[in-house]
Design brief:
By secondary structure, the chain is α/β, with parallel strands linked by helices. The chain has 15 helices and 21 strands.
């Protein structure tokens, strides 16, 4: 038999000195879930008996790596909680052989209302970590019984829906679209979807029952190229508030959802029948119902956004006592054409639903709005240009144009972001396809040919860009940018690398044309110094025969300096009166990388 490690035994013994816990069954290893299980009861005289019994049974699931790993508190299937509270997973009783329910308690440090008896910061010492969780669990029960699990100034927590469907759904909503939904009286209708890939859907359009459009979800070029799938039957209903039973429990069955909707004066079954009568159910693969409701940023704030929770349902809902079981599989060609009924006790197949609006997706990290909202023309899709382009799009820049006449060669892949399957393809076109696949919201365009060709033949397409970003470092390209006078002022930026990618040169000016002469005046002394310094070094070459020198720099040199250039953009955007010239340099000492230093920074008053 497996024996607990000494650290876990130390933690277990420490619980004997905690008031409010009584061990029922000692540590037992459960092989299928790879956890230690401790069966206990928790009690406190402070618990409001009318809401929660003063003594309840629990199962503590502990990782074998204790004091590291997870510790989870689950209510017992007998003599414990049956309802769901805030800061708790949906507390339903699963049909498995384990004696606990699914209502895992959230005892994390960010639940600030639990910091009364123990510090909020979780300890990881073997003798205190388990007792910290036990005391937090008792505190949780006291707070839950007194309706004090949440504070008014904390972030809104979406209710935990039991998601029995394997399908995923993405929609796009924000505070602006919330105002739109508030302005219309229609509360249900038809929805259309596209399949992003197997089992993942995007909401495309909300319509009235008569087919008139109410709202389109805007997505990027790649996502928009996927047409709405006619094999998906779609509908939507907008509720007045989050569908739940108190304290904070999502509906599990159709009868529960019907009751919740009835309390909001909505007959959901009648609505669904109306929707189905308006649509042709033949040769459909799946019916997706969107249930929308308002949510807020913080509990003490007003509603500010609509959240759509997807439901995978049969094609007709009726309150029947004789359900027909039908499996809907999006991966198979399902030709169900008859009406299907389910009873009120059937579980709702809630889908995994996500708000994939730009602001929601980019919450992990985004460039300032003045940069992300820019329309940027990127000249040069080589090693540096491809790295800069990818960093811009992944950081929130939607509208990017790319110019490059060159095709991708095998040697380019040593430091390019493109892949083997793009060998021989035009760099600008291939990079455009790649960048449009990196974000749901990217709208990247390629402009075939050289800069000169595009200035002469495609200028109407180029006028929309307000930032011209050159990553070629090519004098001919930069001279063309000086010779061409734009009809409106542009932000010009030149990014180029020094020998072996040791230096990064950034020049910018805000004008009707690129100030090439000033750029040369700034950069020439530094290039002359590099020429003297590396004069004896032999350049790498490509191919046999005639000399084909290549620019020497590793991928890590290119990428780290490309990232440095992105970091500098914010300062460049803030300077609209004068030209700027900056130089960053890699610092190494005794073979050890020391970082990137700003060695020159100049604001030039012309």
């Amino acid at each position: 038999m497996k024996v607990p490690n000494e650290s876990l035994l130390t933690g277990r013994r420490a619980t004997e000195f905690v008031e409010g816990i009584e061990i029922i069954d000692d540590l037992k290893w459960i092989e299928p879930i790879k956890k230690w299980v401790l069966h206990c009861s928790l009690y406190s005289d402070e618990i409001e008996h009318a809401v929660i019994n003063k003594c309840t049974e629990w199962y503590i699931l502990i990782d074998d790596a204790y004091p590291r790993g997870s510790i989870g508190f689950y209510p017992s299937k007998r003599n414990s909680l049956t309802q769901t509270f805030p800061h708790q997973m949906y507390n339903y009783e699963d049909n498995n052989n384990y004696p606990w329910r699914n209502g895992l308690l959230c005892l994390d440090s960010n639940v600030r209302t639990l910091g009364r008896l123990v510090p909020n910061e979780e300890p990881y010492q073997e003798e205190v970590r388990l007792t910290w969780h036990v005391i937090r669990a008792i505190e949780w029960l006291i707070a839950a019984s007194k309706n004090k699990l949440t504070s008014q100034d904390e972030l809104f927590e979406l209710i935990d829906f039991p998601e029995f469907s394997s399908l995923k759904l993405g929609f796009s909503e924000d505070s602006q679209s919330f105002m739109h939904w508030n302005s219309i009286k229609v509360k249900y209708g038809i929805a259309t979807f596209s399949v992003l890939h197997s089992g993942v859907f995007l909401v495309r359009e909300f319509k009235k029952l008569n087919g008139l459009s109410l709202r389109n979800n805007e997505w990027g070029y790649h996502s928009s190229q996927v047409k709405s799938d006619d094999r998906i039957l779609g509908s939507w209903i907008l509720l007045k508030e989050v569908p739940h039973f108190k304290p904070w429990q999502a509906p599990l069955t159709w009868s529960e959802l019907t009751e919740i909707c009835k309390n909001q004066k909505i007959d959901i079954l009648s609505v669904l029948r109306q929707i189905n009568r308006k649509q042709n159910c033949k040769k459909k693969l799946v019916h997706i119902l969107l249930i929308g409701f308002p949510i807020k940023e913080k509990l003490n704030e007003d509603y500010s956004e609509i959240f759509w929770k997807g439901v995978e349902i049969p094609f007709l809902i009726e309150n029947s006592l004789n359900p027909k079981r039908v499996k809907l599989d999006i991966k198979q060609s399902n030709k169900i054409e008859k009406q299907v009924t389910i009873n009120g006790l059937s579980k709702i197949k809630w889908m995994h639903s996500f708000n994939w609006s730009k602001s929601a997706v980019m919450s992990r990290g985004m460039l300032p709005k003045k940069i992300s909202d820019s329309k940027i023309l990127l000249i040069g899709a080589g090693a540096l240009g491809s790295s800069v382009g990818e960093l811009l799009v992944r950081a929130g820049v939607e509208k990017l144009g790319i110019i490059d006449y060159d095709n991708l060669e095998m040697g380019n892949l040593t430091r390019h972001t493109l892949l083997l399957n793009e060998i021989g393809n035009n760099k600008a076109e291939a990079l455009t396809k790649r960048l449009n696949k990196t974000s749901l919201h990217s709208k990247v365009e390629s402009h075939a040919g050289t800069l000169k060709y595009n200035l002469e033949n495609n200028i109407e397409q180029l006028r929309k860009y307000n930032v011209i970003l050159d990553c070629t470092g090519d004098d001919e390209v930069l001279m063309q940018l000086q010779q061409y006078q734009w009809s409106d002022i542009k932000q010009f930026i030149s990014i180029s690398l020094g020998f072996e990618g040791r230096k990064l040169f950034l020049f910018s000016n805000y004008s009707f044309y690129f100030h090439y002469d000033l750029f040369r005046e700034c950069v020439d002394p530094w290039l002359a110094d590099e020429s003297t310094q590396f004069n004896e070094k032999q350049l790498p070459r490509e191919g046999l025969g005639c000399w084909h020198p290549l620019f020497p720099a590793r991928a890590d040199d290119v990428w780290i300096l490309a990232a440095t250039a992105i970091k500098k953009l914010e300062a460049i955007y803030n300077e609209t009166k004068f030209s700027t010239f900056s130089i960053y340099e890699q610092e190494n000492s005794d073979g050890n990388f020391q970082g990137i230093n700003l060695v020159h920074n100049e604001v030039i008053n012309e």
